[in-house]
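Reopening this one. Same input as before:
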Amino acid sequence: MEATPPIPPLPPVRSDGWLRTLKDSLSGVEYDYTEGAISRGIVMLAIPMILEMLMESAFAVVDVFFVGRLGRAAVAAVGLTESMLTILYSVAIGLSMSVTATVARRIGEKDRRGAAVAASQAIALGIALAAVSGVLGALGAPTLLRWMGGSAEVQEVGSGYTRLLLGSNVVIMLLFINNAVFRGAGDPALAMRSLWLANAINMVLDPCLIFGWGPFPELGLTGAAVATTVGRGTGVLYQFLTLRRGAGRLHISPRDRAFDPKAMLGLVKISLGGIGQLLIATTSWVALMRIMSPSGTRPWPATPSVSGSSSSPSSPPGASATRPPPSPARTWGRAAPSARNGASTSPGSTTWPSWAWWRRSWSSFPTPWSGSSPVSRR
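Same output, byte for byte:
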């Protein structure tokens, strides 16, 4: 039996090579991930994705920063609403994982029409899911806050905020799905830019609509929801314009938007495993928030910052665990296009460090009985 030859060492990379890779990843230079160096491809995919996730996590943090000046009941409403939104994040991220894998596979096969069809079916599915959950959330916002243990004051102050965010969750769903399409097509810089744009608008509008700066009306807590929705909606509009014009590697034409039940069912099957795993983590977080709520509003000023920055599955620490890398799927599709229907690409077959995330979140969670809340020490 012949011995396996040793793997030759990778050639050294000059510092200017890394700087060039960093610049190309941020500028969105077109790169063939099926032909180029793996190390360069990983860096070009990872840097925009990390920055994208930082922007997604910043939405709740920015809201809490400004809402904190409205009082404890307002901050409690943000915390309860964000905890309910994590369930929606689970569905959106699970579906976006299947979209990234499928689009990357078709791009690797040089089948851009197939990638466009998969993307359009995912968008249609996301709109349908968001419409159902949006109607239920908008109509039942006060009831949901009450079920989450919110006091009468929290329900009165936060009903408008919760109703608007849950009712307009379609922009959240589409933001995730469209960015998944960009990543799968090899355009992570476009996904990064859409969230940069959305966050910039949110940061500008938040104080204006909350406190009534300049010509803007003073909407209080509801203003934070309006700013967030407008920011995310602008990001989604930028995504659709990019896909329609074909500014990136993928162009969705009118003929690609026809309903394809087979393609849509395939996306659902692939996403179920990932959605299930994420729901285990997020429902546990919602249950924990519900357990904390009988303590009133005292622990809340510190809690939403944890929810928005570290516990959400969309935050940077979980980015590598919840986002399937498109490069292997793209290469796989290129190498064996005939086997694409005979193998499983379900994210449920992977193992994520969810227990480590849960342990970290629990250890950093402020509790009224431990004295870790800055409010409880007053």
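So the earlier flakiness isn't reproducible anymore. For the record, The radius of gyration is 22 Å.
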